[in-house]
Design brief:
The complex is a heterodimer.
Chain A lengths: L1 H26 L7 H21 L6 H28 L4 H19 L9 E2 L8 H28 L2 H10 L1 H6 L4 H27 L1 E2 L6 H12 L6 H19 L4 E3 L7 E3 H18 L8
Antiparallel strand pairs in A: 1-2, 3-4
Helix pairs in contact in A: 1-5, 1-8, 1-9, 1-10, 2-3, 2-4, 2-8, 3-8, 5-8, 9-10
Chain B lengths: L1 H25 L6 H22 L4 H28 L7 H26 L17 E2 L2 E2 H23 L1 H11 L1 H6 L4 H26 L8 H13 L4 H22 L1 H18 L14
Antiparallel strand pairs in B: 1-2
Classes of the chains: A mainly alpha, B mainly alpha.
């Protein structure tokens, strides 16, 4: 039970970090869906290091964990720097689709790699040897601390005036350019920073689950993170956190009771409420679209 | 292999038509267009199953009816999406259209899953029963390939005629240039956008039946072709002819790569190629600096 609670805490923090990094990019007009792929890059970079230290334990225990984080940071930075070149060159909604294609290409690339376990995934065992429940709470606490740091940094930046610059870039990039801001550079830097944050979150995911499979980082996760980022007030960090927590917890709770909806007369042909959840989720997304504010005309 | 590559090219080109129309008329990425394609395939599958179970038309005639039904269902769904989901959001923030399209895409996908679940238990993937239609060959091409290629050529001709020669096409081109100006001139903008969506939906729905007959039917079959077709539309320079050319080029490349290197490498190399073109020429290959987008 305690471990389940730790898992809820960890995943809420994990999705909130990803949603927050997506929200920052949305705020400056970059509609990227690459966060799940960046998390996959971080997770696989870390797990590769841990696998290496398992077969040849040069840096055991905490050292290997730190090394895994550094690997995630570097891999995330390299991928974000390269992908960022594409993202800042194309405009508007095309970024959404290009990044979605990147997510799918990453997934296929991982599925083809035997070293990374292919489509089955890869697991690690000999991470720091402590009690499972303590370990879960510890990683959950690290994720929460990371989230708190990001929220503080985001709120500080917004209060220092960066928030209004980002809003101007999003609503009218030409005005921002005319005011002397290098829009492309700002977007590029933010994309790289958010990519690194997502990769680090992926590293924490790998540490927590000790198992990484490409199916966890597909296009459905990419869209989920994007929607989480849009729940609530976009100008505050709390909206993304609310989205991360609610959209993670609700489907988990729907899975708990075995409620079934009969289809037709045959009682065997029934579906569980958890199976209908994606349909409800789709309606919620369309409802959210109606709740968006009126367009601005600068 | 070449004929299969041509068929994939034709499918992407037909899908790209719908994306180009939505992008030009409402400046949006219609994420649900891939699911309109899937819905057409689903409708065609049910028509073929109905024909087989009730002793109705089957074989080549059954398949042609299935393609027509797929097209009509695709047109109706695309029209309904535009009227009920997208149109009320025209004056809202740009993100609202993105969200609505993502929601509609997921909704159609899950409805497809539910319908296949109701139809029978087991896997959500189905194979279309074409009877003797897939055994008949013309010039080395199967019936499915012939109908797919005919559909592409006919669609491009009809769409080009509609856009170049009719008042509907003139209005559509004007909408792509400035919706607000047309509204001030009291032109029926909404009706035209709805009809343009229906046109894109018809072509996508019919292509969905051909694609499902050639490969297999699944509620998720529209997603990846949808993404690639949209990018084909961007690569092609967002114009309708550019979209057709881009879609056809990407599809044929995919088909050939699939035969040589397998499906996993195909997806990776295609993604790299598309991204390479977008980095080198973000405005697309067929833009020529012209203001018109349709």
């Amino acid at each position: 039970m305690m471990q389940l609670a730790a898992s809820y805490v960890f995943f809420c923090a994990f999705y909130s970090i990803l949603a927050l990094s997506a929200a920052v990019l949305i705020r400056c007009g970059v509609l990227s869906l690459a966060h799940s792929a960046m998390a996959a890059v971080g997770a696989y970079a870390s797990i590769s290091i841990w696998l290496y230290s398992n077969s040849a334990p040069v840096v055991p225990g905490l050292g290997s964990v730190v090394l895994g984080f550094i690997a995630a940071f570097l891999a995330g930075a390299v991928v974000a720097i390269v992908l960022g070149i594409l993202v800042v060159r194309i405009e508007g909604d095309a970024v959404l689709v290009a990044t979605l294609l990147f997510v799918e290409a990453c997934r296929r690339l991982i599925e083809m790699s035997d070293h990374l376990g292919g489509s089955v995934g890869v697991a690690v065992r000999s991470l720091p040897d402590i009690d499972a429940s303590t370990r879960s709470w510890l990683i959950g606490a690290v994720a929460c601390a990371g989230l708190l740091f990001l929220v503080s940094a985001f709120l500080y930046l917004c209060r220092s005036g960066v928030g209004s610059i980002l809003d101007t870039i999003r609503h009218n990039a030409e005005i921002a350019e005319a005011a002397g801001f290098n829009v492309r550079k700002i977007r590029y830097v933010l994309f790289v920073v958010c990519g690194i944050v997502a990769a680090m979150a992926g590293s924490l995911y790998a540490l927590f689950t000790q198992y990484v499979a490409p199916s966890a980082f597909g296009w459905d996760s990419a869209i989920l993170i994007f929607v989480m980022a849009l729940v609530g007030e976009k100008k505050s960090a709390w909206g993304a956190i609310l989205g991360g927590c609610v959209l993670y917890i609700v489907p988990q709770f729907l899975r708990l009771p075995d409620w079934r909806i009969p289809l037709g007369l045959n009682s065997l042909n029934a579906i569980s409420v958890a199976e209908v959840w994606p349909l409800i989720y789709a309606v919620i997304i369309m409802g959210m679209a109606r709740a968006q504010p009126q367009a601005r005309h600068e | 292999m070449l004929s299969a590559a041509f068929l994939i090219g034709a499918t992407f080109a037909l899908l790209a038509v719908g994306y180009s129309v939505a992008y030009s008329s409402m400046n949006m990425v219609n994420f649900a267009h891939g699911e309109v394609f899937m819905s057409g395939g689903l409708a065609g599958y049910f028509v073929l199953e109905l024909g087989r179970n009730s002793g109705g038309p089957h074989g080549v005639i059954g398949f042609v009816i299935a393609v027509a039904t797929g097209g009509i269902v695709g047109a109706l769904i695309a029209f309904a999406l535009q009227r009920l989901v997208y149109r009320p959001l025209l004056h809202r923030d740009r993100l609202s259209l993105v969200l609505a399209a993502l929601g509609a895409s997921l909704f159609l996908q899950q409805m497809g899953l539910l319908l296949l679940r109701l139809q029978g238990s087991g896997s959500s993937e189905r194979t279309m029963n074409l009877g003797d239609a897939d055994r008949i060959q013309v010039l080395g091409l199967t019936t499915v390939e012939c109908i797919g290629l005919f559909l592409l050529i006919a669609s491009v001709c009809v769409v080009a005629w509609l856009i170049e020669m009719t008042r509907f096409g003139i209005r559509l081109r004007a909408i792509a240039f400035s919706v607000d100006a047309l509204r001030r001139l009291k032109q029926p903008v909404d009706v035209n956008i709805g009809l343009a969506f229906a046109l894109g939906g018809f072509v996508a729905g019919a292509a969905g039946v051909v694609y499902a007959a050639q490969y297999s039917l699944s509620p998720f079959m529209g997603f990846t072709p949808g993404i690639k077709a949209f990018l084909a539309c961007i690569v092609g320079g967002r114009s309708i002819y550019g979209a057709v050319l881009g879609g056809f080029a990407i599809g044929v490349t995919e088909g050939l790569l699939s035969g040589w290197l397998g499906s996993a490498w195909r997806d990776v190399i295609t993604a790299a190629l598309i991204m390479g073109v977008l980095v080198a020429k973000p405005e697309g290959l067929y833009s020529f600096g012209k203001p018109r987008t349709l």
